[in-house]
Design goal:
Blueprint (H helix, E strand, L loop, with lengths): L7 E11 L6 E7 L12 E4 L2 E8 L3 E6 L1 H6 L10 E6 L18 E11 L2 E7 L2 H4 L7 E4 L2 E8 L3 E6 L1 H6 L10 E6 L1 H7 L14 H6 L4
Antiparallel strand pairs: 1-2, 1-6, 2-5, 3-4, 3-6, 4-5, 7-8, 7-12, 8-11, 9-10, 9-12, 10-11
Amino acid sequence: MFTGLIQEQGRILSIRTSGARGSASGRISIQARLTLEGARLGDSIAVDGVCLTIARFGPKGFEADIMSETLSRTKFRFSAAGCPVNLERAILAGEPFGGHIVSGHVDGCGRISESRPAGNAVAVSIDCGSDLLRWIIPQGSVALDGASLTVTEKRRDGFSVSLIPRTAAHITLPGKKRGELVHIECDGLMKLALGAEPANRTKEDALSMETLRRFGFA
């Protein structure tokens, strides 16, 4: 589990894939320092919001395996060496919890349609499909490339977020250009509250403390 509070910006050192399209897998090498302090093999690191497992340490960072499902759902299949990435280590029991609950299982990708200054903030607009947009609400939470952000506006074809100066200084989003892809993970509590298939929901599926416990949120 993650919080969406980015600990450092790393960089892709290399990414290698093999296998036929649709079933390809690969290994990614990430430059990192702060995120790896005290880390061990098998620990989880969110790389641009994607939960990956440390498979090997290297002189500049770590390596992780990427399965075919992850490649098909994320922008990693288009990534190359040198790309900056947001990094967050999985939260430990007893640590302060900020941001919002981020699982590290991205729902899909969106595309930046606009990024502009808005006073001392940065306003970023994202285009995405209706399959993702149905879980987005104004003032709700969303993770973009793993960063916990608040939705400021929802449109027919996308939504917008606003980055305060401190957030903008710690994540990769302000440096991205129009048309670039970003990972989107919608708020798990919102998906739980709305239900993936409302027609199939039962009284037991209603949002309650017991439901939250059953799904590991409490």
